[in-house]
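Priority: low. Protein: Delta(14)-sterol reductase LBR. Input follows.
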Amino acid sequence: MPSRKYADGEVVMGRWPGSVLYYEVQVTSYDDASHLYTVKYKDGTELALKESDIRSQSSFKQRKSQSSSSSPSRRSTSRSRSRSPGRPAKGRRRSSSHSREHKDDKKKIIQETTSALQVLILFKPSENNTRRYNGEPDSTDSNDTSSKLLEQKLKLDLEVERVLDQYSLRSRREEKKKEEICSEKKIFEPIKTTERPSSKTKELEFGGRFGTFLLIFFLPATVLYLLLMCRQDDPSLMNFPPPLPALESLWEAKVFGVFLLWFFFQALFYLLPIGKVVEGLPLSNGRKLQYRINGFYAFVLTAAAIGTLLYFQFELQYLYDHFMQFAVSAAAFSMALSIYLYIRSLKAPEEDLAPGGNSGYLVYDFFTGHELNPRIGSFDLKYFCELRPGLMGWVVINLAMLLAEMKIHNQSMPSLSMILVNSFQLLYVVDALWNEEAVLTTMDITHDGFGFMLAFGDLVWVPFVYSLQAYYLVGHPIAISWPVAAAITILNCIGYYIFRSANSQKNNFRRNPADPKLSYLKVIPTATGKGLLVTGWWGFVRHPNYLGDIIMALAWSLPCGFNHILPYFYVIYFICLLVHREARDEHHCKKKYGLAWERYCQRVPYRIFPYIY
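Result:
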């Protein structure tokens, strides 16, 4: 982990975001995860700055003293010594007059350039002025107006600097003093401290050590309970607990072998040299890992393999008949994988550990994941499990349930309810694989380590809980009319549109904020150099992609009718999961963006549900 350079309470010179001006600031805190310093300016403004935007006061004072230490006589002496003895005086006078003319021309060009830029920027019609001329109400308040004026001023400073650098209009003395401008008054007294920042995880989630210990047993028990309830003739919550099967019936070596074959089959597709290779976000040490984007190709190859098996009369209903055993096999494999991941993480260097899974507590780090990106050569275990075996296994399980329904109920066609569930969830999976590159910016990849939480979630929870609606419909068929099916389809399309358009808007902005196609978007600038979107879907609620997720989850459950609440477990779970993730995002963004995030929350008050939450 990179060492911290400035201590809390130390008075340093901080660069104002978007300019070359340095002001006296006091370091108040340091974030180990984002490696940003929170500093306080003399007017009380608090911002988060990178270490490259902070300099010590001694460097400014030393440079200033060096520039003013030589007397005029010494400077003149040095100039006279530098002249060639054989050079005629007339030539010297001509060259000096020529240099003065050159300097005058430079000053004139600089003044004209600066004035022209000021006129262009100050008299550029703003969006608010256009609204007023069109008779539309202005929705911005006084704080937004002042921030826009500041933003215009910063844009002017940056444009002037760019022009001066581009055409070499800056004098040598000005070039030396470019980054040495600072305020003269001193208002903060330095507070000396020898405390060094710790790389350990300080804030524990999921109830800390005790909560994570319970979750290691509670999550597999929940999966077992849901699957047993779906097998009952009356899957009412009042019939608790369901009859437990014999322990020997939950395990079969052949089923475990089929699961291993599926896992390594997907690993083989992952290693195929097809698809582009992209870089992930920079790690704490500045290094970027490379990822091959070929998930959609792997899905096409998997579909071709499944189609071939069906062509040769392979009974895919085998998945339905041994569904409980497949779930137990997946849980056992995820536990073994988690143990391997934790043991190998003990030898990982400090910089490779996850910021959220380095608490020093065995159970907590085992659950959340101790190592951030465990790899075997170029094979990234976390990235592979995130989208491949579990997500594609979800689609295969749904197809097996559709075929099992037709065979058990002697139907020539699957029911309309089963078709809707399969179609909606297939769209969701294909969308995730088609936009695979967007996964690299999620918290799962950038922040969470790879431990039991993600291993069990990717390999067990996703394929066996997300397919709960299809599994339920096999034993409890529901007949729905075409108008009802059309209404449910419209609801799913609305949720998908919100989900996909919001994510695309965010990903396109992250990839290229200067894209002319995104010029209509408004942003709040932050000290990190990034912007917070306040228009489009992200100006409607803070997490519009979560809103789309919840609407789609509801559409997946509605084809199961209202006889039992069991098919709606996924909706309830999804709401709880997204509320938890939203709370994590809020905490992370508040620490990362500081006052800019507070302004964003004032501008966009609703988190997920408009006018509700």
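The longest helix spans residues 89-122. The radius of gyration is 31 Å.
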